Amino acid sequence: MLHTVKYSPFSDQSLEQALRYLQPGDQLVLWQDAVIAATLPAWQARLQQLASDGCLYVMQEDLDARGLVAGVGEPLTMAGMVKLVIEQGSPTAW
């Protein structure tokens, strides 16, 4: 299953909730303000296993818009996001 999180971990519990519900093999996309998590050491440590499993994606356009560089996760463009949705079906949005 594909999960997407768009809210900053500073302002919302969406990422925390999504991580609790992820099952083995699920994929997670961080976009909009959620990309901040991929740049923070405490969150990077929590997300590392997903990244190592190839299940964590971070929207490159959102990183660029914020002047950030992700420390974990695979960069993903909007075209890549569309491909994931086609492959995985409608995502669960947090």
Automatic annotation (TrEMBL):
Protein's UniProt keywords contain Transferase: yes
GO cellular component: sulfurtransferase complex
Annotated keywords: Transferase
GO molecular function: transferase activity
Pfam families, alphabetized: DsrH (PF04077)
GO terms classed as biological process: tRNA wobble position uridine thiolation
InterPro entries assigned to the protein according to its UniProt record, in alphabetical order: DsrEFH-like, Sulphur_relay_TusB/DsrH
NCBIfam families registered for this protein in UniProt: sulf_tusB_dsrH
Protein name (Swiss-Prot/TrEMBL): Sulfurtransferase complex subunit TusB
Organism: Oceanimonas baumannii
Gene responsible for this protein: dsrH
